[in-house]
Design goal:
single chain, alpha/beta, two-stranded parallel ribbon
Length: about 240
C-alpha cells in the first residue's frame, strides 16, 4: 500500500490532508508535524490537532525515512530535507514564490519590500539544497498596491493548496512532467536576511520605499513596523 505523508503546518497542511482523507482513503495517510507544533488551533488550523481527531498517525521524520512506497509532501515544513535518507524518491515541496526567484526565507515579505507586482507558488521536487528541485507546476499571483505581507501570505496559502490538490493524482501515479529551474534570475535569502528583533522603519528612503516597508512588515498576528514607539498598519 502506498503511503502519503504530509509534513508541515497550518491551513495548507490540514486542507491537503482533509482532501486526501476524502479522496484517497485506500492509501495509508500519515503526517510529520513541525517542531513548534502546539496542537492548538489559532488563526490557522493545527495539523497535530486535526490528525489526532481524524486518527491519522503522527510519525517522526526518521520513521518516514524507512517507508518504501511513499509520497512525501512538504507543506510549510520546518526542516531541510535530506533526500539521501529516504527510501523513496517521490519527495515534493510547495514553495511560496515563482522559483528560481526568492528561494529560502521570507517569500511573503521580500517581494513587497522590493516593489514586485507579482509573486506565485511553485510545486517542485525536493533535491539536495534549498528549493532547488525540478518544477512540476507554478501559479502566478498578482500583488496589489495595497497588499500587506499578511494579504500576500493568505493568497500564497490558498493558491498553494489548490496547486497541490490539483497535482496529487499525477504525483501518486508517477505521471509527472517536470522542468529544470533556470539558473539565470535565481535568488536566495537566508534567515539572516531580516532581523525581526529590530523592526524599525527606515525613513531615509523614498516615499514609495517607506510605504513598501510598512506593507511588507504588516503581519498583524505577529508584528507591525514601528517608528518612534508607534506601530504602523498602512500609509498613503
Amino acid at each position: 500500500m502506498k503511503t502519503i505523508c504530509i509534513a508541515g503546518k497550518n491551513d495548507i497542511a490540514v486542507d491537503v490532508m482533509l482532501y486526501c482523507l476524502r479522496h484517497y482513503s485506500n492509501y495509508r495517510i500519515v503526517c510529520v508535524t513541525n517542531k513548534n507544533e502546539t496542537g492548538i488551533n489559532s488563526w490557522q488550523k493545527s495539523l497535530k490537532w486535526f490528525a489526532e481527531r481524524n486518527n491519522v498517525q503522527i510519525m517522526s521524520l526518521s520513521e518516514v525515512y524507512e517507508i518504501d512506497n511513499l509520497l512525501f509532501l512538504s507543506l510549510e515544513f520546518d526542516r531541510i530535507i535530506r533526500t539521501s535518507k529516504f527510501k523513496s524518491a517521490e519527495l515534493y515541496n510547495i514553495h511560496f514564490s515563482l522559483l528560481p526567484k526568492y528561494k529560502g526565507m521570507f517569500p511573503a515579505v521580500l517581494p513587497i519590500l522590493n516593489g514586485e507586482n507579482c509573486s506565485g507558488v511553485t510545486l517542485h521536487r525536493i533535491r539536495e539544497g534549498i528549493d532547488t528541485g525540478e518544477i512540476v507546476e507554478q501559479k502566478k499571483i498578482l500583488i496589489n498596491d495595497d497588499d500587506s505581507s499578511l494579504d500576500l501570505y493568505r493568497k500564497l496559502i490558498a493558491n498553494g493548496t489548490e496547486l497541490v490538490i490539483k497535482n496529487i493524482e499525477y504525483l501518486l501515479t508517477g505521471n509527472v512532467k517536470t522542468i529544470q529551474q533556470d539558473k539565470i534570475g535565481s535568488t536566495y535569502h537566508s534567515s539572516d536576511a531580516i532581523d525581526y528583533g529590530n523592526l524599525e522603519l527606515n525613513i531615509c528612503k523614498t516615499a514609495y520605499q517607506i510605504q513598501n516597508q510598512i506593507r511588507a512588515f504588516c503581519f498583524r498576528p505577529y508584528q507591525l513596523l514601528t517608528w518612534r514607539g508607534t506601530r504602523y498598519i498602512e500609509c498613503d
